[in-house]
Amino acid sequence: MMWGGIALFSPAPVRGVAEAAAVGAPAPENPPRRPRIGLALGGGAARGWSHIGAIQVLREAGLAIDVVAGCSIGAAVGACFSAGKLDELAAFARALTKRRVMGLLDFHISGSGLIAGERLRRLLERDLAGCRIESLPVTFAAVATELGTGHEIWLTRGDVVEAVRASYALPGVFDPVKVAGRWLMDGALVNPVPVTAARALGADVVICVNLNGDARVRGTVIQAHGAEAIEPPAAVAALAPEAPRRWALLRGTGRLKASRARPADPGAPNGIASVMIDAFNITQDRISRSRLAGDPPDVTINPKLAQMGLFEFHRAEECIELGRQATQRMLPEIREIVAAAGPA
């Protein structure tokens, strides 16, 4: 039956039911629903390129992703994937050099952060302009933190670009972003790996990619420490040479230096930017562990990113490969859990 060009009744299903009833067979049933797979993509600046590798492996394995909840860089990668732009993002990331990274950072001193973020906004709009979260093919949410109240904000509708910018607005580095009357900043302050959001959006199986899960950089408790001169533990000594190079991009601008004089101690803090971001990274790691213990995902992917600096965006090729390797290691467990969550 047609009305206004819309089929109100489809003759084929009705005929099938009638034929089944005539021979005494049970009416055909709807096929069982497969489990909805959700991704929780954590924050971690340049380490977030590993999210690209993780998603690539899941796609190649034939695992359909239905829900994505992202925080900070995880929101940026998750939004591009949800909009069908992951391959474009991967090509862009691989093409980055140190010079190109610095060209994307519009430093200023008049705002509430070191970087205005307008160049990055224009870059996002190149592929995501006009996209709205509620219209994306994949269910998506970006997690942000409200300035002043500390509320955890799940951005599930509205402009994709503004949601992503709010989610990665690292305090002191990027200016906060105003969305629907609220000033928002980096979601990693409250929920660095948004497993809870992925579940709330309807995921039956949640796979999280934790960018701070490498055991080599996890903090612990030093129960006895005094003023005596001692050698640093071997693990710390091994990472120490990475520190000057890790923050080379930010220190090299000159504008972010606390002093042009190099510290006499090679292990000493080397500028306000490195101290601020390292402190944020430590806080994020502790919050991640607490949140994941309270609401554990079904599967956790921990790329080995200890040697990857937070602002080394030019090392995308390495980072993507580390994400691929970590996900490939977890594929058997992922398949097993997805199968167990399916219809009996």
UniProtKB/TrEMBL annotation:
<feature type="active site" description="Nucleophile">
    <location>
        <position position="72"/>
    </location>
</feature>
<feature type="active site" description="Proton acceptor">
    <location>
        <position position="186"/>
    </location>
</feature>
<dbReference type="Pfam" id="PF01734">
    <property type="entry name" value="Patatin"/>
</dbReference>
<keyword id="KW-0442">Lipid degradation</keyword>
<dbReference type="GO" id="GO:0016042">
    <property type="term" value="P:lipid catabolic process"/>
</dbReference>
<feature type="short sequence motif" description="GXSXG">
    <location>
        <begin position="70"/>
        <end position="74"/>
    </location>
</feature>
<protein>
    <submittedName>
        <fullName>NTE family protein rssA</fullName>
    </submittedName>
</protein>
<keyword id="KW-0378">Hydrolase</keyword>
<keyword id="KW-0443">Lipid metabolism</keyword>
<dbReference type="InterPro" id="IPR002641">
    <property type="entry name" value="PNPLA_dom"/>
</dbReference>
<dbReference type="GO" id="GO:0016787">
    <property type="term" value="F:hydrolase activity"/>
</dbReference>
<dbReference type="InterPro" id="IPR050301">
    <property type="entry name" value="NTE"/>
</dbReference>
<feature type="domain" description="PNPLA">
    <location>
        <begin position="39"/>
        <end position="199"/>
    </location>
</feature>
<dbReference type="InterPro" id="IPR016035">
    <property type="entry name" value="Acyl_Trfase/lysoPLipase"/>
</dbReference>
<feature type="short sequence motif" description="DGA/G">
    <location>
        <begin position="186"/>
        <end position="188"/>
    </location>
</feature>
